[in-house]
C-alpha cells in the first residue's frame, strides 16, 4: 500500500521567490512542490502539498493527515508552520491530538535569527526538526522520514 506524505506550508510561504530572498532564497513554492514531488517519487510516496495563510485551514489539514495516520497510510507530515510556529497552541494541539509523525521544517536557521523565532510550540511534539538547509530541507526531510 502506498503511503502518503503531507507537506503543509503556513503564512507568507506563497510569497517564496520574492519574499526576503536573502533569507529564503529565490525559489518559489512551485519549485518547492517540485522538489517534494521528486523526493516522494524516489520513495514511492504519494504527495499532498498545500499552503495556507490561515491557521484554521492548517489545523483542518493536520486532522486530515491524522485520519490517514490512524488508517496506517501516512508516512509523515512535514510542516513549515512559518510564523505560526512561534505562536500557535492550536497547531500544537492538532499534532498532539492526531499523533501524526511530524517533521518541523524551516527554510532558514531560526536559531540564528531574532529571539522570538527561537521558541517553537511544535518542536516538543516533533519527531525531527529541520532548519537552515534552504528549500532543499524539504527533500531532505522526506528522505529522512522514509527511514522511519
Ligand atoms: O515565515 C517564516 C518562515 C520560517 O518558518 C522558515 O521557513 O525559515 C521561519 C519563521 O520564523 C518565519 O516566520
Automatic annotation (TrEMBL):
Q: Provide any one GO MF term from the record.
A: 3-dehydroquinate dehydratase activity
One Pfam family, short name: DHquinase_II
Residues holding substrate: 80, 86, 93, 107-108, 117
- Please list the residues that make up the active site: 24, 106
Q: Reply yes or no: does the keyword Lyase apply.
A: yes
Q: Which InterPro entries match?
A: DHquinase_II (IPR001874), DHquinase_II_CS (IPR018509), DHquinase_II_sf (IPR036441)
Give its E.C. classification number.
4.2.1.10
Q: Which reaction does it catalyse?
A: 3-dehydroquinate = 3-dehydroshikimate + H2O
CDD domains found in the cross-reference section: DHQase_II
The UniProt keyword set, sorted, is:
Amino-acid biosynthesis, Aromatic amino acid biosynthesis, Lyase
Involved pathway(s)? Metabolic intermediate biosynthesis; chorismate biosynthesis; chorismate from D-erythrose 4-phosphate and phosphoenolpyruvate: step 3/7
Where does the record place the site Transition state stabilizer?
19
Q: What does this protein do?
A: Catalyzes a trans-dehydration via an enolate intermediate.
Q: How does it assemble?
A: Homododecamer.
Cite the PANTHER family for this sequence: CATABOLIC 3-DEHYDROQUINASE
The entry sums up its family as follows: Belongs to the type-II 3-dehydroquinase family.
Q: What is the protein's given name?
A: 3-dehydroquinate dehydratase
Source organism per entry reads Diaphorobacter limosus
Amino acid at each position: 500500500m502506498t503511503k502518503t506524505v503531507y507537506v503543509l506550508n503556513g503564512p507568507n510561504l506563497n510569497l517564496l521567490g520574492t519574499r526576503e530572498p536573502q533569507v529564503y532564497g529565490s525559489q518559489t513554492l512551485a519549485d518547492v512542490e517540485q522538489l517534494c514531488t521528486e523526493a516522494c517519487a524516489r520513495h514511492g510516496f504519494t504527495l499532498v502539498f498545500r499552503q495556507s495563510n490561515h491557521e484554521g485551514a492548517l489545523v483542518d489539514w493536520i486532522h486530515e493527515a491524522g485520519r490517514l495516520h490512524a488508517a496506517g497510510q501516512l508516512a509523515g507530515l512535514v510542516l513549515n508552520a512559518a510564523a505560526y510556529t512561534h505562536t500557535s497552541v492550536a497547531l500544537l494541539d492538532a499534532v498532539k491530538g492526531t499523533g501524526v509523525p511530524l517533521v518541523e521544517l524551516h527554510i532558514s536557521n531560526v536559531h540564528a535569527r531574532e529571539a522570538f523565532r527561537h521558541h517553537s510550540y511544535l518542536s516538543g511534539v516533533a519527531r525531527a526538526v529541520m532548519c537552515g538547509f534552504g528549500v532543499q530541507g524539504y527533500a531532505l526531510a522526506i528522505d529522512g522520514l522514509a527511514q522511519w
